[in-house]
Amino acid sequence: MKWGRKGMTTKTFLHKTPKWFSTYTDMLKRNRGLFVFSLVMMLAAPVHPLLKAYETRLTPVFDYQNYYYDWDSLLWGISVILPVVLSIVTPFLSFHYLYSRRAIDLYHSLPIKRSALFLGRFLAGFTITLLPAAAGLGSAWAISHALDVQDRLSESVGQILLFSACLYVFVVFVICCCGTIWEAILYGTGLTVALLGICYSVPEFAARLYGFSGSIELGDWLLAFTPFYYMAIIDGSWSWTAVFPVLMAAGLFFLSLLLYQNRKSENTGSAFSYRFLFHIISIFISVAVVIFVYIWGSELISALFLGFLAYFIISVLSNRGFKRLAPVVLRGAGIAVGMAVFILSFEATGGFGYVMRIPSLDKIESVAIRTVEAGDYQTYARYRTGSGTVISESPQYMVYRETENIALVHEIHQSLLEKKETLEEGNTSLDVDINLEYRMKNGSVFRRSYRLISEKELQNLVALNCSQEFLEQKYPFLEDGFTYGLKARTAVMEPFVKEGEVVAYESLGIAADEVAQALKKDILARPLGFETAPTADYVGRIAILSPVESSFFHMASSAKKVKLSAADAATHWSKKQVILIYECDKNILELLEKRGKLESFRSRVAEFAAAEQVQLSLCEQPTYHMLQNRASNAGYYYDKYSPYQSLYQVTDPEDRAFLLKHLQPVYYSDLPCNAVTFGDGYCFLIPNEYQEQLLEIVGRAEKENLD
Amino acid sequence: MQCTALRAKPWNMETKGMVRRVIVFDQVKKFLDGNLVLDIADLQIPKGSIYGLIGANGAGKSTMMRLISGVYTVDSGLLTVDGENITDNAAVKEKMFFVPDDPYFLPQTTMEEMTEFYQCYYPDFDTVLYEQLMASFELPSKNKISSYSKGMRRQAILLLALASNPKYLLLDESFDGVDPVMRQRLRRVMIDIAADKEITVVISSHNLRELDEFCDRVGVLYHGGLLYDITLDRLKEEVHKYQLAFSEPVAKEAFSRFRLLSCDITGKFVTLVIRGERQVLERKIGDLKPLAVEEFPLSLEEIFIYEMGAKGYDYKDIFA
Question: Are A505 and A493 spatial neighbours (Cβ–Cβ below 8 Å)?
Fold first, then answer.
């Protein structure tokens, strides 16, 4: 019998196709079921919310809130979880043969270069993971825009896709490192937990250093070197650091390719495809365990023991039993000792000299300072807009370039270092976050943050607040040529409420620039030091507001509604102002009178004076009223005790008149002052010199039963 | 290491230069888990030959197959096929098909799908030959391969291997599990096709009678080293079995002049398995003045057993 073709052989049509592409199409074909299922799931995800939207819109009262949450949660559930699950599962489908001796005989004897085989299967898995996700997320995005519905998904499509892509590459990398599926799952999980543990523990560890600045930034930076970064910014925010995970993923891809190309088939079934990977991964996980356990509340010795234990367990698993126990124990002990030496020396030397370092005065170009009530972390300090504009901390910082002001800040810094021991113990100090940012003449930046300050530093801060530089930054309209533009609004604000909670109760209806011009004249006419201890009677508050007043989370979409770019919206938002008006501010009061708004403006204070009774509570101890920042114009005070301890009914008109005369909505002093809160939460301060009278008023008032 | 000591190969160079060598091992070493499992200083497998690899379990046969097929890479030395390094060389591998001892098929696939799979990688895949073979061996092409019996799976991979039109076919104990009738048919078909298409076949098996039937040449592996690399005819010419009868009982020392593989003395009767040229041996035996001399033919299996016995790989030693 004659076997096969005769004469010249005819090559199959596949001969012309590159082999990586044949591999790619072959794998897609074999996994078409999963591909189609994912595609259908992702495309179907928006259908239910769409129907729900249609149904809701037919009803007489459109329940936007419920509709929004239904839409959002459903989309979020399916559209986020499925790509993430796929990015974990498909790498195993692509490279399952690496874990089977039989399968590897087949795949590695095929006439295809290792790199081409890797590429074909990598891309096939990538397609199965990302194409359905892209299609589904794209359709969800299109539908949400068509329906004009805000949802987290529309803002996060990019992050979800990038996260899935990075996670996919990470899993492929882990697969290439390990020799069995069990090990891949184990060490993949271990590495994930260790990476996240490091990202959250190292900044916390660094933050233990006295004066350490930038925990959040450090956390962000560390996270940016992991595939999990996009999950952290999945609220739709972007920054240039978002490029790092992509670069990392690209690096991991090439590393995986390299590992794959040189991987020995016979290592199938071993714990790791390369022995050196065992050392890297096991040490990394052990170190992460030590840091994590130590940071989150355990003694160093326990942390070291658990780190040793982690290494021991990994080694035993990797060695497939208790073989080579002595070197394992020695290496584990070595890691524990190494970590102990590092941690102890780090702490003993103040982060290897970090704590006591201070820039020399002659090298400082400028210094920015920010004070924030401790615990009241700035809600918008790190927010980013949808277009990528970063609202940095700078609006909240007061920048000083004058030599004497720089010297004042430097003195504060030096004093904080001198009192390190006392302040660390938390004795007789004010609970205030103080952030310093030096710009050096050589262009470098030097940052420090402190948690507590004492009266000495407060005196210098008050002196800074009396400076011209402070004033210019507090009121943006004092800058030459600055305009608010037509979009900004003006409003009359509640006069007594605590500054951080101030709300508008009436639109002023006067152009922002006109108000700003009047205020500019008044503020420049005020005597120096007026800002810290006003010498005229208080009239009320006026605000120049950003046209984008919705939650900062949705600044981008809010900006769109008022036809502003996100960047412009951010500028407006940072330039908004609440200005305290006193009887001495003739220009603004004249303007209000001219526009018929003065009576209304004064009415809230008049109401207070004319009220039959005023509920009052008094802090049992005098409090420190602290500094303010430019962005919110808010003052912060420190309460040693809750100001709401007792509630009194002040009925005597003379007492109310006294209170009205001496109250200060803003008062900066290094001396304690009295925090007085009215019934609805209106809060103001009365200098300590009037404390006796205040106590008499309280003595005459009727005490209310708070229960 | 043991294998270094086993490099003495008196006959492996006898035809060097006469036949074109296509698979060449040059100082090749392979370590697994830190142990040297293969150490072949010099081996040249000629083109178009059917080369049998024999050896005890763990001798290194499968490792050698995986090295030739490129599944494993050599740790030192050079392994070339057609003068080219096999490592990650798709062009060389395109001419090669490796059938491992436990073949793997893609999950849930049929023969048709496996054919499509191999067509992606073997441009010379011969669909006509495939159809002929499928018809001849009556394998159900639309059934899942997972539903095949072990023997059928062996047939399936051999058919795919032959249809892929390789120039080098590596068969690692590939006929195991196939029934005797089918085994015979497969062998014949394989020999036919190999002869027709000048395929170089490297085959390992524990069934030495089978190898005896169709191998041109054999390599005997022992503890990772190559004991012999020789044609079967030459091997049989070099190892002889004689039965001698003497007038009086003789001592073993009497045969110290011979390169003995085995010497069994029962009183006046002696059975010898000896290496050497027949004429020389017969002259030496004549010098001992035996009453009677008779030579018995040796099969490959017997030669292998005697050779292994001489190296200490003997059931007597196992139970000693």
Answer: yes
What is the full DSSP assignment across A531-572?
Answer: TTS--S-EEEEEEEE-S--S-GGGHHHHHHHTT--HHHHHHH
Cβ pairs A/B, distance under 8 A: 101
pLDDT in tens, A345-367: 998 998 899 999 999 999 999 99
Question: So where are chain A's domains?
Answer: 14-273, 361-465, 476-598, 611-707
Crossing angle of the two packed helices A653-662 and A691-700, in degrees rounded to 10:
150
Chain A, nearest residue to B133 by Cα: A3
Distance from CA of A136 to the nearest CA of B (A): 29
pLDDT at A92 over 80: yes
Alpha carbon distance A281, A317 (integer Å): 13
Q: H/E/C letters for each residue in chain B?
A: CHHHHCCCCCCCCCCCCCCCEEEEEEEEEEEECCEEEEEEEEEEEECCCEEEEEECCCCCHHHHHHHHHCCCCCCEEEEEECCEECCCCHHHHCCEEEECCCCCCCCCCEHHHHHHHHHHHCCCCCHHHHHHHHHHHCCCCCCEHHHCCHHHHHHHHHHHHHHCCCCEEEEECCCCCCCHHHHHHHHHHHHHHHHHHCCEEEEECCCHHHHHHHCCEEEEEECCEEEEEEEHHHHHHHEEEEEEECCCCCCHHHHCCCEEEEEEEECCEEEEEEECCHHHHHHHHHHCCCCEEEEECCCHHHHHHHHHHHCCCCHHHHCC
Q: Domain coordinates of chain B in residue numbers?
A: 2-234, 237-318
Q: Which two tokens stand for residue B114?
A: 């496996």
CATH number among 2.40.50.140, 3.30.565.10, 3.40.50.300, 1.20.1640.10, domain B2-234: 3.40.50.300
Sheet of strand B21-32, all strands in order from the earlier edge strand to the far edge: B84-85, B76-81, B21-32, B35-46, B225-231, B217-222, B50-55, B200-204, B168-172, B96-99
Answer yes or no: do A106 and B103 touch at CB < 8 A: yes
Distance CA B53, CA B226 (A): 10
Q: In this predicted structure, what is the pLDDT of residue A459?
A: 72
Write out the two tokens for A688: 């300590």
DSSP A45: T
User: Nearest to residue B66, comparing CAs of A101, A124, A404?
Assistant: A101
Asked if A30 and B106 come within 8 Å (Cβ–Cβ), the reply is yes
The verdict on a CB contact (< 8 Å) between A265 and B72 is yes
Per-residue 3-state assignment (H helix, E strand, C coil) for A356-411: CCCCCHHHEEEEEEEEEECCCCCCCCCCECCCCCECCCHHHCEEECCHHHHHHHHH
* Model pLDDT, residue A618: 61
User: Does B121 sit within 8 Å of A102, measured CB to CB?
Assistant: no
| Encoded tokens for A668 | 């900066």
Beta carbons of A5 and B126 less than 8 Å apart? yes
Q: Mind telling me how many Å the CA of A167 is from chain B's nearest CA?
A: 26
- pLDDT band of A631, cuts 50, 70, 90: very low
**For chain A, what is the mean pLDDT?**
78
Look at A109 and B69 and tell me if their CB atoms are within 8 Å: yes
* Stretch B64-83: mean pLDDT: 94
Per-range mean pLDDT, top range of A74-78, A548-552, B170-174, B254-258: B170-174
Give the Cβ contact number of residue B182 at 10 Å: 16
How far is it, in rounded angstroms, from Cα B218 to Cα B51?
5
For A111, the closest of B90, B128, B163 (CB atoms) is B90
Has residue A625 got a pLDDT over 60? no
CA A276/CA A584 separation, integer angstroms = 76
Q: What's the mean pLDDT in A660-664?
A: 76
Q: Mean pLDDT of all residues in chain B? A: 85
Class of CATH domain B237-318: alpha beta
